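Here is one chain, start to finish.
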Amino acid sequence: MANTTYSITVRAYQQLLGPASSAISVQTSSGGYCSSESIDSDHGTFVWPETDSSMRAVVACPYGPNGVTVSRVCTSNGGWESPNVTRCLTAISSGFKNLSKVDLTTENNIAVLMSLNELVMNSTDNDQSIDNIIIVSNILNQTAILISGHAGLSTSNLTMITENAIQILNSIGEWPSITRAEGNQIIQSFERIVDAVLNHNNDTNVDVVESNIAFAIRKFAKFNYNGFTFTTTASNGSLMIDTDGNSIDTEIGSMTIPKSILSVTTDAKIKLAFSLYNKSAFFPIRDPPPNTIVGSSVISARIAGVSDGTQLPDPVVINLALKTNNSSNPCCVST
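Its structure:
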């Protein structure tokens, strides 16, 4: 029988110096000249050859794209103008492109995700593009397929995959202009990994907390399941998962999955995954009414063995703290 998962989601450089450019052509004439010059930037090292005045030097982009060049004018008084290198890839974007060509295997999956994590964390505005978002999404999708197709993956491997995926997601949450357009694609890719880990043949519980995301997986034998509450709190600006219900810190959000899901799950065990997003970058309001904002964290749960659309015997209880005191008419919205 195919795995099914019930989903609930609610919301209320260090500089990398690389290859040097090579001169493609230089137009020459008699008269003064500009001295050769080497300039380091996040787009690579540009080596400008000695060039006659009033002429233009042309060099290739160090990191590509292939065939793309940059020109620079030597002025009539022998001074260089500033080149526009924005058409060239940065070291980080070149890294994204190179990583997208790697075939993911059980041997290299952790190394690939760690490299992707580093690229995302070290990206600047020049790298935060739709193309790179798509690369991230594709690698996460490939990772989910890899997990689903290899039952023998170790517990430590699965945990490291989950940790890196959440760290990547947490960093991409700082790309607001991009995530507003592609946030749904990234979340779907992440949830494919969650489903794959959730349905994997192991009993490992997982807790991962980043600056803006708290995540947990809990697995129970059916005879031990008596309902479960996932609670996230905050203290001094840091998120925490409250595992015993006795925290005195400020509660950000909680979700209780009732015991009665025992009667609707098709799995031999109860497997739950929870996510709380303290920022709403991935969940913009579509066509909002005037003066409407996302006023709380976003919380979600996935239940293995329960198909989407299944009517649960008892309600799922959700609590979300409002982030602003001067709001009116708060309401929960599913996404």
